[in-house]
Design a protein that fits this description.
By secondary structure, this protein is of the alpha+beta class. It has one domain: VSR Endonuclease (Endonuclease, Chain A), CATH 3.40.960.10. A 4-stranded mixed β-sheet has the order 1-2-3-4, with helices on both faces. Helix 3 links the parallel strand 3 and strand 4. The longest helix is centred in the middle third of the chain and has 16 residues. The C terminus is likely disordered. It comes from Acinetobacter kookii. Keywords: Endonuclease, Hydrolase, Nuclease. InterPro entries: DUF559, Endonuclease_DUF559_bact, Restrct_endonuc-II-like. It holds the Pfam family DUF559.
């Protein structure tokens, strides 16, 4: 696991127990290796962050963003976070909660396409 931060273990557990509706919906499709047989983890500590979803085999982080991410401070914080994760060779996909709730099939297809194109070891 890349840069696992054990100090965030309890916070990540709390987040897993209090997922947003968008996170719950997306998790329903990511869990149990439903996308190309790949394992995803939810609310995973990496560096000093807790990412919503993480797929180590695809070096992929998926974030479900609420309205707080679209403030000036939120956008700046996300940029810093994404750059730090990119240093670990992780790709970050961001979807706002409205996209996940209203265009679920499109979101899932985009995730599928990114993984399929990124991971040559993944075959359908």
């Amino acid at each position: 696991m890349k840069a696992y931060n054990k100090n965030l273990k309890q916070a990540s557990r709390d987040l897993r127990n209090n997922m947003t509706e968008a996170e719950k919906l997306l998790w329903s499709k990511l869990r149990d290796k439903q996308i190309l047989g790949l394992q995803f983890y939810r609310q995973k500590p990496i560096l000093n962050y807790i990412v919503d979803f993480y797929c180590p085999a695809a070096n992929l982080v998926i974030e479900c963003d609420g309205s707080q991410h679209y403030t000036e401070e939120g956008l700046e914080a996300d940029q810093v976070r994404d750059e730090a994760l990119a240093q670990l060779e992780l790709r970050v996909l961001r979807f706002d909660n409205g996209q996940v709730m209203g265009q679920f099939d499109v979101v899932v297809e985009q995730i599928f396409q990114v993984i399929q194109n990124k991971s040559p070891s993944c075959e359908t």
